[in-house]
Amino acid sequence: MVRQRETEQKLVEEEAAKRIEELVQKRVEEELEKRKEEIEAEVHRRVEEAKKAIERQMMEEMEWRQAKLREEEKRREVRPIQRNIG
């Protein structure tokens, strides 16, 4: 009798835990569905922000390299002139 009650109680507890888990899962899915557009918009915003940052870095690096090349060209132009003078 006691053993049967314990078994029944265990089954009730397991069933309750299962139902709670299902309800929590359902609630999470509902909340995600509600916020889906908001989440997608936030992801899109962050991706665009990252793209702009990378693009900005690439432009800065390209400008820096162009400046270095111009400096090098000026040095090359100055050296032959100095040789002709000397």
Automatic annotation (TrEMBL):
GO terms for molecular function: cadherin binding. This is Uncharacterized protein. One of its GO terms (cellular component) is mitochondrion. It comes from the Eukaryota. Keywords: Coiled coil. Pfam families: ARGLU (PF15346). Residues 13-56 form a coiled coil. The keyword Coiled coil applies. It comes from Cotesia typhae.
